[in-house]
Amino acid sequence: MEVVICSDERQVGEVAADRVISWLEGLVTPVLGLATGSSPIALYDELARRAVLGDIDFSHALGFALDEYVGIDPEHELSYKQTIRRTVVEPLRMDPARVRVPDGSAEDLAAAAEAYDLAIAEAGGVDVQVLGIGSNGHIGFNEPTSSFASRTRVKTLTQQTRDDNARFFSEGEQVPTHCVTQGLGTIMDAKHLIMVVTGEHKADAVAAMIEGPVAAVCPASILQFHQSAVVVLDEAAASKLQYGDYFRHVARHKDGVGELGS
C-alpha cells in the first residue's frame, strides 16, 4: 500500500488524478469503478478539469458504480445513479449509456447483484477503482464484519452510516436501511485502487486501515493485501497516523526508484 500525504484538498485531487491518468494511459476502453461521497470529489473535479483541457478523454470509458440504496427511486436526486451522473458522468464527459449503477429497485435483488458482477467481468474487469472510506472503516457499503470474499450483494446499513448520511436527506425523510454494494472480493479484483480521503473526521478510520491489523471490523484494511493500492490523504485525514513522518519521508525521496509502498 502506498500512502501519499498532501497539504490540502486541492493537492489531493491533483496527486490522485496524476495516478489515475498514468494507469489509464494507452487503454482503448478504460473501465472505471466509481465511488460516491464527499472525499472523491477533489479527484473528480481535477479529472474533469483535465478532460476539458483535452489531457484525457473519458468518452469511450466504461463505468461501474460501487453501490446504490435499496428501494430509492433511481430518479431521486439522492440516488447514487443521479449522484454519479452529477458528480462524475457529466463533468468527465462520459457517455451515460456506458455507466452502470447497481439496481436497488430490482424485483430480485440477489439476481441483479449477481448480474452486476458478471457485467464487470465481461467488461474485462475494473482498471481503476476509486474509493473513499466511511468513518467506521467501510468501503463501498461493506460495513464492519463484511466478508473479505464477498461479491456484489444486499447489505444492511449500520446506524452510524445512516446517521452519517442523514445530512444529505431532507428533515423527516427516511434514510435507506439497505443497499446493494460491490463486495470486498469484487473491489479487490480491480487492477488498481485509488483511495482519496480528506478531513479529520476520517482520521481514526484511516489509521485503522493503514496501520492496524487486517480485520473485518475495518473492512478497508483489506487494501493492505492489494498489489496496487494508493491512498491519498490531506493532513487532517493523516493526523492519527503513527508513521505519518515516515510516509512523508518516503514520498520526498522517491526519485524514480519505482512504486512506493511496503
Features:
262 residues; alpha/beta; Rossmann fold; seven-stranded parallel β-sheet; three-stranded antiparallel β-sheet; 8 helices; 32% helix; 16% strand; globular; Glucosamine6P_isomerase; EC 3.5.99.6; hydrolase; carbohydrate metabolism
Summarize the structure.
The protein has 262 residues and is α/β, with parallel strands linked by helices.
Describe this structure in words.
By secondary structure, this protein is of the alpha/beta class. It has one domain (2-253): Rossmann fold (3-Layer(aba) Sandwich). It contains eight helices and ten strands. A seven-stranded parallel beta sheet has the order 1-10-9-6-2-3-5. Strands 4-8-7 form a three-stranded antiparallel beta sheet. Helix 2 links the parallel strand 2 and strand 3 (62-65). Helix 1 crosses helix 2 (41-53). The longest helix is centred in the first third of the chain and has 16 residues, at 9-24. The N and C termini lie close together (6 Å). The mean pLDDT is 94. GO terms for molecular function: glucosamine-6-phosphate deaminase activity; identical protein binding.
Strand order of the largest sheet: 1-10-9-6-2-3-5
How many angstroms separate the termini?
Answer: 6 Å
* Mean pLDDT over all positions: 94
**Low-confidence stretches at least 5 residues in length (pLDDT < 50)?**
none
CATH fold node name: Rossmann fold
Number of strands: 10
Look at the helices and sheets and give the structural class. Answer: alpha/beta
Shape: globular
Portion in helices = 25-40%
GO molecular function, one term: glucosamine-6-phosphate deaminase activity
Keywords: Carbohydrate metabolism, Hydrolase
Pfam family, one: Glucosamine_iso
EC number: 3.5.99.6
